[in-house]
Amino acid sequence: MSTAVGAPATPIDAPRGVRFPHVNYLNANYGIKSWLLTLDHKRIALLYLASVTFFFFLGGVYAIAIRLELMTPAGDLVESQTYNKLFTHHGVLMVFFFLIPSIPAILGNFLIPLMIGAKDLAFPRLNLLSWYIYMAGGIITLWALLSGGVDTGWTFYTPFSTTFSNGYVVAAGLGIFVNGFSSILTGLNFIVTIHTMRAPGMTWFRLPLFIWAHYATSIIFILGTPVIAITILLVALERLARIGIFDPALGGDPVLFQHLFWFYSHPAVYIMLLPSMGIVSEVIATFSRKNIFGYTFVAFSSIAIAVFGFLVWGHHMFTSSQSIYAGMVFSFISYAVAIPSAVKVFNWTATLYKGSISYDTPMLYALAFIGLFLIGGMTGLFLAALGLDVHVHDTYFVVAHFHYIMVGGALMGYLGGMHYWWPKITGRMYPEGWARFAALVIFVGFNLTFFPQFLLGYMGMPRRYHAYPVDAPVWQVLHVMSTSGASIMGVGMLIPMVYFIWSMRYGKFATANPWPATGLEWRTASPPPTENFGTTPVVTWEAYEFRPMEETEVIGPGDTPAQPIDGMQPTDGKNP
Amino acid sequence: MATHEIAATHHGPAAAHAAHVPAEHSAHAALAHHFDNLEQQREAGSLGMWIFLAQEVMFFGRLFLAYVIYRTRFPEAFAAASNHLNWKLGAFNTAVLICSSLTMALAVWAAQVGRTRRTQVFFMALTGLLGATFLGVKAVEYYDKYRDHLIPVRGWFHWEQPLSANVSEQNIQMFYWIYFAMTGLHALHMIIGIAILLPIMYRAWKGAYSPEYHAPVELFGLYWHFVDIVWIFLFPLLYLLGAHYAGGHAAAGH
What's the CA gap between A438 and A435, in Å, rounded? Predict the structure, then answer.
């Protein structure tokens, strides 16, 4: 008897022998036009993958430049003005063009229709449009960065950005403004799809937690992004007209900008983090072969994080002349965000308890996420404390904290998700050994980069400075550690890039359900056909219904021989 | 054995909807391939438009927030600046927009109950004309402000009315900045609206809309009413604000 839960139900009766024996979304048609004009959510996801990876690479180059400068106390590699541009460009590219679109636009786009049993997102043309808008925003921003650069920091604080900065603030702002509409359309598409396109039987509480996480993310997209859009627009207009609503000369209030900016940009952290948490929920359940502990709590904690996330922006402004009473309220609500976050961490841990854990690459990233998110989240509570924040405000402590959340959290989840669904996306397995090795390198490199920055910040190293005192030798030691860690992490990031590309041609064929997991996306072929399912599935089971495995299932997919698609049942007992 | 089977079905997502939708609808030419029936498609479109309007509220909302903050800080200056706006043209435009909402609602109704394409196009054209009238009046108002040097650009703005301790030229400039930002953004929405209305009108002329399928008309109607409602808030906030301060509208009109 096969105990497979995810037995595929749509057998592919295509002849063997060719590269992909079945017609799928990748080989359904060819040519540049079939990609650039595609309405298939899976192809659009791949368009996003290519462009997001490009911006990620570029942002990484700026990071390396920053770290090289900081190896020595003297500002000797670049001038301070250049350094200001380096960290601004790093921030703008990473936040607006990598972290925010990465998981929703790539994995969310690819997986949401598959996971709920739909043929596509509700608005395929809007979906394609959102990619073009993203590219337009990216090109405008890139033009701004390359032709003159921006030195305001990614936060564009007024009045520096509106009055004093000599950079290409208007152009960069325009790029971010345009890019915002890509997020809005994506969020709109996701919410409508999740509401109206679910397969029969796919009730709200049978949805994978990945979907809940994206639903919460989409709420932030819809309600938060317009705010940053109008705010950036106001900054640009103020720069052009030379006066405006943030201008103290007119009685305007520059701190109003900070309120408007953080009203979006704090929830934006949860845009980066929530999808990652969704991935972790999927991966933890699959690789401990257990139903997620407390499904409804994990689902609602995503919504709670999205809602609370809108009420905490003031904790960025404890030192910005904000009323102390407002500060107390913001501090309190910031602590409250820890509750749904802790619900997730505890429930993942409880899921691991007595699970049949296997340490495949996605699981390594998921476990790394839990640990690093814990550190990032707890240090976030330090910063939400009114007194302590005055001491560490604008220091490397803050830098380390948000990199633990954005890199240790969001990026680890993204990489875990890319590995987990790579077989579904490409129909090929990545090399498991190399992948585990890369995960280890990235983990070590990450901690070596950012842990010393906590110490640096606590000792008073301010952020955004390109030089620091020579007579504090321990600062240089910590900075050198950080830079070497960044180099290790940089190499670690290149390894997946290489083997992912390699595996697209040479990887072993993936079965429909290589892990095996329970979601609907694993019940169609790898890669899926253009319309996802041969016939609309009817869901009669709960989410994450894992059952005990036979020994054959425990053998990892990397150890099974390459099989063409008719061997897509990995658990049929025939494989040794 | 696999515990769960995937059964074939031709009914759509959320079977609840599919259950009470007649099957013949699925053959409609306007049905996109990834929807199971027109009912689902209509529901998705309608939800999508409401969500879009929600983000529009957040978009305009920040300007309203800025307005509230600065009006609270500089009430006298805002009143004086407001009194200088031409409330008669503003009131006329309010009436024009309300009428255009009515004609738009009639256009939706005409499509819903299956009136002739001539009737549908008539109401849509009337809506578009009223929208254009609004923009024309707005252009006249903007021209007046330009002539009076009230465009808030550094080095250009000039306020000729008397100032007082609580009314500084800078704060008046702030009012005009917000006035132009809000009405400009609103006018941009009107222009986009008319641009969207034209192809819908063309398709209505081709007879595309029927009681079974009229979603584009309906969704555009939602958008148009939203833009109308924004103006309903803008008019009293910007034009009538100063009426209860000393001087009232005596200073208005020029």
Answer: 5
Nearest CA to B173 among B84, B41, B47, B40? B84
Q: Residue A281 carries which DSSP code?
A: H
Amino acid A46: pLDDT: 96
Asked whether the predicted pLDDT for residue B96 surpasses 70, the reply is: yes
- Here the CATH number for the domain that contains residue B113 is 1.20.120.80
Q: Among A187, A245, A538, whose Cβ lies nearest the Cβ of B178?
A: A245
Q: Is A462 helix (H, G, I), strand (E, B) or coil?
A: strand
CB contact under 8 A, A226 and B56: yes
pLDDT value for A576: 31
Question: Taking the mean position of all CA atoms in its chain, how far away is CA A484?
Answer: 24
Lowest pLDDT segment from A152-156, A393-397, B35-39: B35-39
Tell me which residue of A2, A6, A4, A3 sits closest to A543, measured CA to CA.
Answer: A6
In a domain, B193, yes or no: yes
A195 contacts in chain B (CB < 8 Å): 44, 47
Nearest chain B CA: its distance from A74 CA (Å) = 41
Put simply, whether B93 touches A (Cβ < 8 Å) is no
Q: How far is A258 from chain B (nearest CA, A)?
A: 13
Q: What is the pLDDT, as a whole number, of residue A476?
A: 95
CA distance A482 to A569: 46
* % chain A with pLDDT above 70: 91
Q: Is the pLDDT of residue B11 over 50?
A: no
Looking at the complex, does the CB of residue B6 fall below 8 Å from at least one CB of chain A? yes
Q: What is the mean pLDDT of residues A449-473?
A: 94
R_g over Cα of chain B: 24
| B177 near A CB under 8 A | yes
CB A511 within 8 A of CB A570: yes
Residue B23 in contact with partner chain A when CB distance is under 8 A? no
Site from B17, B58, B166, B169 to mutate, A interface, most A CB atoms within 10 angstroms: B58
Task: Report d(CA A449, CA B112) in Å as an integer.
Answer: 63
Question: What pLDDT, in 10s, does the model give residues A519-551?
Answer: 999 999 989 999 999 888 999 989 998 876 654
| Residue A516 near residue A4, CB atoms below 8 Å | yes
B242 pLDDT above the threshold of 90: no
What number of other Cβ atoms are within 10 A of residue A119's Cβ? 22
Which ipTM score applies to this complex?
0.87
Interchain contact, A538 vs B14, CB within 8 Å: no
Structural domain contains residue B21:
no
User: Residue B212 sits in which domain range?
Assistant: 38-245
Q: Is residue B33 part of a domain?
A: no
Domain extent listing, chain A: 39-567
Residue A385, amino acid: A
- pLDDT of B15 above 60: no
B63 contacts chain A (CB < 8 A): yes
Give the closest of B4, B154, B171 to A541, CB-based. B4
B18 → chain A, closest CA residue: A200
A251/B59 touch (CB, cutoff 8 Å), yes or no: no
Give A114 to chain B, closest Cα distance, Å. 13
Superfamily of domain A39-567: Cytochrome c oxidase-like, subunit I domain (1.20.210.10)
Q: Which residues contact residue A235 at a Cβ distance below 8 angstroms, ignoring those fewer than 6 apart?
A: A156, A158, A161, A162, A169, A173, A244, A246, A257
Q: How far apart are CA A105 and CA A425, in angstroms?
A: 14
Q: What is the pLDDT of residues A409-444, one digit of tens each?
A: 999 999 999 999 999 999 999 999 999 999 999 999
Q: CB-CB: which of B6, B153, B155 is closest to A523?
A: B6
At A550 the pLDDT is 56
A545/B70 Cβ within 8 A: no
**In this complex, is the C-beta atom of B136 within 8 Å of any C-beta atom belonging to chain A?**
no
Specify if B28 maps to a domain: no
Are B2 and A9 inside 8 Å of each other by CB? Answer: yes
